[in-house]
Structure formats: structure tokens, C-alpha cells
Amino acid sequence: KEPKEYLSSSGPITVKRNLFRSSAGVKSVCALELRAGIVGGLCTPVLARQVTYAMGQMTSAETAALFHEFGVQGPSASTCDRIPKVVGEAWERNREAWESALRAQETVPPEAVVMAVSLDGVMVPDKDAQHAAKLEREKRKKDLSKKTGGPAGYREVGCGTVSLFDGDGNRLDTIRYGREPEYKKKTLTEQLDAEVGAMLGAQPNLTLVALADGAEENWRYFDGPVWAAATKIVDHGHACQHLKAGLAAYYGADSIMGRADYERFKVILKDEHGGADQVIAELLRLERRLREKKRGNTRSGKTLRTERKYLQNQRNRMDYARYQELGLPIGSGVVEAACKTLATQRLKRSGMSWRSGKQPILTIRSLQQSNRWKRAW
User: Fold this and answer.
1) For residue 88, what are the CA distances in angstroms to 35, 184, 295, 299, 362?
2) For 355, phi and psi rounded to 5 degrees?
3) 252-267, pLDDT tens digit by residue?
4) CA neighbor of 241 nearest in space, from 296, 318, 182
């Protein structure tokens, strides 16, 4: 018999309990904890749920202060930091089965006609990457001119969204996923594939849309067999950014004529059939004029050429007038917002740096923002 203090939503509770150990001498087992569902050997299920939910929104110190303000004694900052990791480990062990169970409980709204899937990423501070960057800096002390690619000490968190739209283009629902840095976003893409398969199984007539910026790794995924029948669209906002950069390279960033041309061609690109061809033709014309002025190999000439090539390479994904006539979304703002709300707002606060604790927080926030939290718990 060994009494122990547990933490509950009403405060600390000391309970007399029995410990059992097999003749093999393995670690003691507490039947009471197993029966009551004690989490992390300390918290009751209700308190663990409250701590985990709060940790999706704020830091461990803030969560502990919140409970103290509510008059609940017990959860310290270290406890608040540990409980989501315990929950996250359990979720990852059972993730595929539990996500499948969540999908089985959901229905596709009958008014849904379009399913748009988007993929993106956001760089977050990472302790392992920071250590690697420090070693790299030490190696390069003798050659300060060399630079590593990407921001030192950061790694990319992957974000994906699956959104349903009605015939008028109104978004009905969105499932959001966030995953810690991983080679080719393997787990994230598997989650998106499973989500698409489940929704198409429930409503086969949905129009499937793959929507992303022009990053090559995104389109390597969307060129897979699952997406053979999908309409593939480059985000209109990103296309406009490249158009703007190309015009600024020729006219100058502060040119009134350049800004006027941008506003004109932005509308052409979006609303006119063959708009992408007109934009590309205009950038080619400006390139020729730079070559005539013998400025084709200057920085502005190279920038203009790069932006024109981007638009040319994405031409078959920029028929925006037709997409709008079909009632398809042309902007990837949903996944960009997911990058901000899932990752940036929680993982990139002042002074933060992460290691293994990223995924539990991303999982919690993904479930919360997908309206799956209650059923997931």
C-alpha cells in the first residue's frame, strides 16, 4: 500500500492505493491508475484534457498561471509542459487508426461540390538545426563569403488543408494538418491522401482541386497518381507577386507606370481567357527592350527573365478565368492561414526554440482548428 497525491481539476487529491509487481521484478503497476485513466502518472483525465487544450493556445508558464488564476492548485509549468508530450506520444502510436475513426464519424455536406487540397510550409526555430548551424559557422570561419541556404537554425513545418466548397464558391469546412519537419512531408501527404480518399468515397462527384504556390516540392506531390483527375491551380496571389517583381525589375519599384501596368495585367491575368499568355508576352517584350538597351545581363534583366520563366513554367496551372467560371477557388489563402495559425502563432513566439515538443502542439492545434478536438479526445 502506497498513498500518492494526484492532480485533479479540483486540486490535489491524496489517494491510498495498492501497487503490484510480478515475480519477474518488473516495474510496479498501479491498478487504480490504469482503471481511472491517470495521464502521465499524475493527472486525472479531466485535468489532462484541460491542460492539453490550454497548451494548444499558450505556453506552459501561461497555462500554469491560468489554472492558478482559476483557483486550481497543482499543475506546475513543468507538468503543463509534460502532459501534451504524453498525450502526443499516445496519439502518434495510434494515429492512423484514430484519424480513420474520426473520418468515419464525419459526413460530407450534400451541398459540397468542390474539394480543394493545399500544401505549404513555414520555417520555425529548431534546436537541432541551430546546433548544426553553429557547427557550420565554425567550419566557415576562414571563409566568411560562403553562406548556407535557408535561414540558419530553422526547419520547415509542413501544413496541409482539405476544404469543401459549395456551388457558389463558399467554403463549408476545412480539415487542417500540421507536421513537424520530415523528409518530403511523408506523413503529411499520407494524411492528405487518406482525407481525400475518405471524402471521395462518401461523395464521388466532388471536383478535386490541387491548389498551391509554385514550389517544386508541392507539385511533385500533386503530380502523383492520386491527383491524375484533379484540376491543378497555382495560387493567383503568388502568380501576381511574380508579375509584380518582373515589372518592378524593368520599371523600378517606385515607378508610377510600373504600378499602373501591374494593376492592369493583374486583372488581365485573373479575368481574361488567355490572360497568362498576355502577361508572358508583355514580360518577353520588356526583356527584348532591355536587350536592345544592352541591359539584358544586368541584375534587373536577370530578375525579369527569372520571373517570366516562372510564369511560363506554371502556364498550364494559371487559366484563372476558366477556373472561376467553373466555380473553383484560385487562392491558397486557406493553407497560408493554416501556416500562421497552426505554427507561427504558437511556435514562433519570442525566444522560442523547439525539439521533440513541436508535434504534440501541432497535433493539438490541428484537431482544435478542424473541429475534431472533442471526438479526438
Assistant:
1) 21, 22, 57, 49, 9
2) -135, -105
3) 989 999 999 999 999 9
4) 318
Q: CA 67, 342, 376 angle in degrees (round to 5)?
A: 65
Give the per-residue pLDDT at 152. Answer: 73
Q: How confident is the model at residue 144 (pLDDT cuts 50, 70, 90)?
A: very low
pTM of the model: 0.88
Half-sphere exposure of 229 (CA within 13 A, CB side): 9
Cα distance between the two ends of the chain: 32
In angstroms, the Cα distances linking 299 to 116, 229, 249, 291, 303 are: 38, 40, 8, 12, 6
Q: What is the dihedral of CA 217, 220, 221, 225, to 10 degrees?
A: 180
Contact between 124 and 131 under an 8 Å Cβ cutoff? The reply is no
Q: Tens digit of pLDDT for each residue in 186-196? A: 999 999 999 99
Pair type for strands 231-234 and 207-212: parallel
Using DSSP, state whether 122 is helix, strand or coil.
Answer: strand
Q: Are 195 and 162 in contact (CB under 8 A)?
A: yes
Is the separation of the CB atoms in 198 and 103 below 8 Å? yes
The answer to whether 174 and 182 are in contact (CB under 8 A) is no
Measure the CA–CA gap between 353 and 133, rounded to whole angstroms.
Answer: 14
**CA gap 117, 210 in Å, rounded:** 5
Residue indicated by cell numbers 491542460: 51
pLDDT tens by residue, 61-117:
999 999 999 999 889 999 999 999 999 999 999 999 999 999 999 999 999 999 999
Helices (DSSP H) in 44-176: which residue ranges? Answer: 45-55, 60-69, 77-104, 127-139
